[in-house]
Design a protein that fits this description.
- By secondary structure, the chain is α/β, with parallel strands linked by helices.
- It folds into two domains: about 150 residues, ATPase, nucleotide binding domain (Nucleotidyltransferase, domain 5, 2-Layer Sandwich), CATH 3.30.420; about 160 residues, Nucleotidyltransferase, domain 5, CATH 3.30.420.
- About 40% of the residues lie in helices and about 20% in strands.
- The strands form two sheets. An eight-stranded mixed beta sheet has the order 5-4-3-2-1-6-8-7, sandwiched between helices.
- Helix 1 crosses helix 3.
- The chain binds adenosine-5'-diphosphate (ADP).
- The site of adenosine-5'-diphosphate has 12 residues, from helix 10 and helix 12.
Length: about 400
Amino acid sequence: MSILVINCGSSSVKYELFDMSDNSVISKGVVERIGGTTSSIKHEVPKHDVYFKKRANAPDHLTAVELIRNVLSDAEFGVITNVAEVTGVGHRVVHGGEEFHESTLIDKTVLKCIQKCCKLAPLHNPPALEGITACMKIFENVPQVAVFDTAFHHSMPEHVYMYGIPYKFYKKFGIRKYGFHGTSHRYVSKKASEILKKPLEKINLITVHLGNGCSIAAVSGGVSIDTSMGFTPLEGLVMGTRSGDMDPAVVTFLMQEEAMSVDDMNTMLNKKSGLLGISGISNDMRDLLTEMHAGNPRAKLAYDTFVYRILKYIGAYAAALGSVDAVVFTAGIGENVPEIKNEIKQQLSSLLKGAEFMSIRTNEELLIAIDTFEVIKRGPQETDTNNGGINA
Ligand code: ADP
């Protein structure tokens, strides 16, 4: 029983094949620079110590998935002899809008709903759709499952996800907080309950995902009750290149004063802000730590701003939860920079007396594989959708 997990970006397709008898990785890799002249495929079979990277022809996502199928069934390095050996394909889909509460078997109706959500995530959903349609062709008759980044946060109450702008924009465009990184927050919540040896239903957690994108969630009894990312992944914490929270008037001010277009503003907020924008050095925490330890004041300012925003959110979510059993750090920075966790733990020692502070390695791919396996086992059901009358 093997499940193939596919994670499509605009110019890359990551894949990971899991053996569901023990949840181990059979094989994984990535097709990069799709559509460019230097496309390549990296492929790894960890159990057999196989690793290679080679140039490949991948003008689009369909050829990329074809390459993946070929490499997986290659006579020398391959791990499957027939695509039918793959029990199912699980797809990471960033935005499920208000439509999807949980991972879902993909059929025509689901494809249409994901398409509808492209408006909400124009950078993320279209490549995911391309990956899904490619896999439906290349892995024909293999069930396909969509696992949404937004689904875990579907439990947020209305007063949490509503923005303080005219209600008509919620009805017209679906403008509200959705939240992202749901698979990671869900995965580490479950792991934390195992470490704490307490049932997930009985604990309150604050999960802090610090990668290139950063978000934080308040999880009560295994259910997300609030999260820092919003309508898009731009809201909340200071991130590698994204601004996170700020006065929205800054946007109109700068557009006027600097004659910035909508595209300019989008690029500034998403690609030139955050750690990179403040430091003027890098979006990479490793570079910033090196510079900061060498005495660079802008690197220190970026680091301090980053940490303070996390601290503030943890305080807010402690208030939302009432009590906190553990604060869980995860992803590239959360797993590898213990000084951030330690600094925050020290500052919150009296406010969060008794709460554990821990780092847990996230594994979104594994959770996508597990969900895919479970959804396929369960079989076709009524699509769990609720469009709430929104025309997004
Ligand atoms: P993504 O969101 O792309 O999955 P990751 O979870 O890989 O990102 O996190 C990337 C961030 O983690 C980068 O800022 C990187 O500098 C940081 N990071 C990764 N490893 C380390 C490390 N050993 N020490 C400090 N920072 C690290």
